[in-house]
Amino acid sequence: MRLRLFTVYCSLFTAFSLLFAVCAGCKEDIKEPSVAGAFYPADGKTLKEMVDGFLASAEKQPADGKLIALISPHAGYQFSGQVAAYAYKHLAGRDIKTIILIGPSHYASFTGVSVYTKGRMKTPIGNIKINEKIARSLINEKANVSFYPDAFAKEHSLEVQLPFLQQALKDFKIVPILVGSPTRESFEFLKEKLTELLRKDEKTIIIASTDLSHYHDYNTALLKDKKITDAIERMSLEDAERYLMTGEGEMCGGYPVLFAMAVAKGLGATNGLLFKYANSGDVTGDKGRVVGYAAIGLYKSALTKEEKEQLLSLAKDTIINYVTNGKTPEVEIKNPKLAANGATFVTIKRNNNLRGCIGNLQPVMPLYRSVIMNAVSASSRDPRFPQMTREELKDMEVEISILSPFEPLKGISRIEIGKHGLFLVKGQNSGLLLPQVPTEFGWDTETFLEQLSLKAGLSKDAWKDAELFSFTAEIIK
């Protein structure tokens, strides 16, 4: 009997020991807050009330299209909290499950990018889970993307975003990313990975953390910050980067914003929308040395009927003016959607027959300027046709195709006739056919691919071992 009791006792002790060992081994990693009590209140109730007050005071501006990314400041709440609320006002209530948080490293110097891969991040309001699966998938030591925990030890650029997320959303996870000194490899790798991720999952969004100009007088700050916010609204990655390089504009989170813009452009973002701008001088009254703050959304928006008509009229007027007197119209369009960089083709037809078609493949200039340039080229520089004459103007038909970003084609079974255009690259040869072309000629998929190969100056079966990319187009006619 005593042996049986001893055996039972030992069994219970062993089970308890195993259970204790398992629990002890599974203690979750929790990143404690670094700036609670400094950048924002350390008391959870006080913090909730402050954030809710900021959100209640923020106006939600009209915004069309799909929100892809937000840009939010990261100073102390007494300085930038109200501006940040304008960004989170547009996030509140959305069905978002994962937030890709990208911010600059202020305290740790390192090469590349650091991704926090495990556990939770804590604020006075509670803990937020890391999306460990996504975070781990971003690690690539060869591309200088790693988990460098020291970078997060004192950092505030991501932490100050968390209470706003907790009050704006429910049931979400985060992927915290800090940018040190990015390499070309880290930028390209992370851009491609995040673009692919957001393309597959519409419940994931990017938030880039940055303040704008630092410690200039009030009017100088306004000028510098206006250049940066205008470039972001126009989705001009090139201008934003140039302003940062020359000092014409400033962002302490410059690379995080460039990451967000590059990914958003890869997903077809058409424009940014400035929700709110202010600087510390607006809060403190001290306008001698200020810091700038902005809340901005990056959107993929369809053109309105009026905007389409404006572009079509611009194309027609350009052709008429150029053919008639060799001049192009001098216009300046400030509509962010039309001023944002875009890639277009302009097609001219007469009696349903092609008369000229020229375009640019990449969005390297404002959309309306792309239309002007390609309208001139289609009328006068298409090598397949002579220059248009005045007589031909009276019965011409004009069509504009606005191209989406190119995506690598993952199998010809994915091609949808009438929806997808194709771009082929093989060696030094390349060719492009717009989505409407196979429909107009009644081609099936194989004929489409053969004609694309011939367009590139290759044999008709060259597509079988060439690089293929698909795209869509918004067609205006």
What can you tell me about this protein's structure?
The structure is a single chain. The chain has 477 residues and is α+β, with helices and mostly antiparallel strands. The chain has 2 domains: 30-300, LigB-like (Protocatechuate 4,5-dioxygenase, Chain B, 3-Layer(aba) Sandwich); 305-476, Hypothetical protein ph0010, domain 1 (Glycoprotein, Type 4 Pilin, 2-Layer Sandwich). The chain contains 16 helices and 20 strands. The strands form 4 sheets. Strands 2, 3, 4, 7, 8, 9, 10, 11 and 12 form a 9-stranded mixed sheet that branches. Strands 14-13-15-20 form a 4-stranded antiparallel sheet, with helices on one face. Helix 2 crosses helix 3 (77-89), helix 6 crosses helix 9 (254-266) and helix 8 (237-246) runs antiparallel to helix 9 (254-266). The N and C termini lie far apart (95 Å).
Overview features:
four-stranded antiparallel β-sheet; Protocatechuate 4,5-dioxygenase, Chain B; 477 residues; 2 domains; disordered N terminus; Glycoprotein, Type 4 Pilin; 23% strand; alpha+beta; 39% helix
Tell me the structural class: alpha+beta
Determine Rg (CA atoms, Å). Answer: 27 Å
Major sheet attributes: 9 strands, mixed
CATH class of the largest domain: Alpha Beta
CATH architecture of the largest domain: 3-Layer(aba) Sandwich
The CATH superfamily title of the largest domain: LigB-like
pLDDT averaged over residues: 93
Helical segment count: 16
**What count of structural domains?**
2
Percent range of helical residues = 25-40%
Q: How large is the share of residues in beta strands?
A: 15-25%
Q: Detail the poorly predicted runs.
A: 1-25
